[in-house]
Amino acid sequence: MKPSDSEPMDEALAQAVCDGDRRALARAITLVESTLPEHAARAQALLARLLPHTGKALRVGLSGVPGVGKSTFIESFGLHLTAAGHRVAVLAVDPSSRVSGGSILGDKTRMEGLARDGAAFIRPSPAAGTLGGVAARTREVMLLAEASGYDVVIIETVGVGQSETAVADLCDAFVLLQLPNAGDELQAMKKGVVELADIIAINKRDIDPAASARAAQALRTATHLLAGSAGVPVLEISALKREGIAELWDAVQVFVAREKDDGRFELRRSRQALAWLEDEVQRALRARFEAHPAVREVLQPYRAAVAQGELTPTQAAADLLRRFEI
Ligand code: GDP
What we know:
Rossmann fold; alpha/beta
C-alpha cells in the first residue's frame, strides 16, 4: 500500500467499520494485528478515529480449564443473545498455540450456529506474541468490534495462568466456568482464579445434578468467605442442553447494573485504561531496550554471566541501563 493513498482509504475503512461491514472489520483487525512497522501508525490512526464509537458494549470475560465447555457455552450463550437482538463478537486471548494452531477449527465446529449467524463475529487469538502483546491486540480488536456495532463482546481465555488476569483486565464482568467435580473448586481457589470471578457457572449439570449442586454449594461457601457477605453468584448450567443460559445472562446484567449503580463500573474501566497505558509504555520501553545496539551487544553474555553467578543481576542491570541511556 502506498503511503500517499493510505489516508483517504483508511477514512473509508473507518466508515465501513462503523457501518457494520464485516469485511471492513476483518481488514481493520488485520491492520491492527499486523506486525509491520508501516502498519502501526495507520492502525493507531484508525483506532483514534473509531474511539468515539467504542465503549458501549458489554464486555464479558470467560474462562475455565480446557474441556469445561467454553466453546459449547459460547455457542449457546451467543445464540441466546443474538436471538434477543444483540450483536455478539467473540474474541480469544490465548498465548499458547491452542487457537492459532488450528484448533479454532475444532472450536468452530462447536460454534457452528454462531459462526453462521449474521449477528455474530468470531475472531481467534492473534497468532503469535507474548501474553502482553496478545492481550493488547485483543483490546484493540475489541474496540474495533464495538465501533462496528457489536454490543456484547465475549473475550475467552483458556484457564491457564496469567491469561485470566489479562482477560479480567479487559472485561466488565468475568464469568468462570467450573466442572462439577469435587476438588475442582479447591484447585481454582488455590490458583486464585475464583478471586477474579464476578460470576461462577458450574457447567455440565446434566451429567450429575447432585454433584453439580454440591459443587455449587461448596463454591458459594468459599466465595462467601473470600468476598464477604455478598459472595459471588454461583449458577448451575448445561451449555450442551442449553439450560441456565438465560439465567446466566440475567446474572451478568444484574451484576453490571449493580456495578453501574455503585460507580464501580466506571472505576473498573478507568483502571483498565490506566493499566493499558502502563502496559503499552512497558512493552515499548522493553522493545527499545532490547533493540538498542549497545544493549544488544552484551545482553546475551550478561544473561549467561548472571545465570552462572559471575555477575550480580543488579550490576548487570545497572550496566545495561547505562548503555541504554547513552
Ligand atoms: P472447552 O475446551 O472449554 O472449549 O470445552 P468444549 O466446549 O470444547 O467442550 C468439551 C466437551 O464437553 C465437549 O465434548 C462438549 O460436548 C462437552 N460439553 C460441554 N458442555 C457440556 C454440558 O453442558 N454437558 C455435557 N454433558 N457435555 C458438555
